[in-house]
Amino acid sequence: MPNFQIACSRCSVRVTPPPTLGQVAFPCPSCGSPFDAWLFPASLHPMAQATPSEQALDGEATCYNHVTRKAVLVCESCGRFLCSLCDLETNQRHYCPSCFEARQSAGRLGQLPTQLLRYDRIVLALSLFSALLCCWPSFLTAPAVFFMAFRYWNAPGSESAGARVGIVSSVVLSLLQLGWWAVIIIALAFLPELQEMEQ
After folding, report:
1. From 15, 18, 93, 160, which residue has the greatest number of CB atoms within 10 Å?
2. 3-state secondary structure (DSSP) of residue 84
3. Which of 51-60's residues contact partners 24+ apart within 8 Å by CB, and which partners?
4. What confidence tens digit (pLDDT) does each residue in 157-187 have?
5. DSSP assignments along 149-197, one per residue
6. To the nearest 10°, the Cα dihedral for 181, 185, 190, 192?
């Protein structure tokens, strides 16, 4: 038996579709208007129970909309406490549902991102570029790698484990390149003293 009901567009009666996969046509039992639906295998399995947000303990801040749930953020527009369910994030800013809707209707939300810039790949390309050219541009690329790695560590698209591994690998590679330069500079600084000691 399907785990949902469909509301009739004519009489608003809730109808449970027949338990048949694929395209199904059936009439509304109340008004007779036809239904045409596609049923997928997931519709025949029982729905999984959603895990509730963390319940607030005595003395903890609670969500403005859900007084039993623990607040995790504050709306950046109105200052209301929000649980993880009420948090609407856009462009790295957090809003409550009412402020989000008000900003969206006023056109003050800005353009929502449709693409993400992969900073982990940029950082990795900088460090590999320097390594492939025998480390000589690492005086320029290593500071850029360090800056971008720390600046964009929590940027959208950089939160995944693979992206973080790429960023950490780039920082380690840049540190090795700078270490190589340190060894060369120290060797050149002590080379005259070694030559004098040999004579």
Report:
1. 15
2. coil
3. 53/83, 53/84, 53/85, 54/84
4. 777 778 888 889 999 999 988 888 888 888 8
5. HHHTTTSTT--SHHHHHHHHHHHHHHHHHHHHHHHHHHHHHHHHHHHHH
6. 130
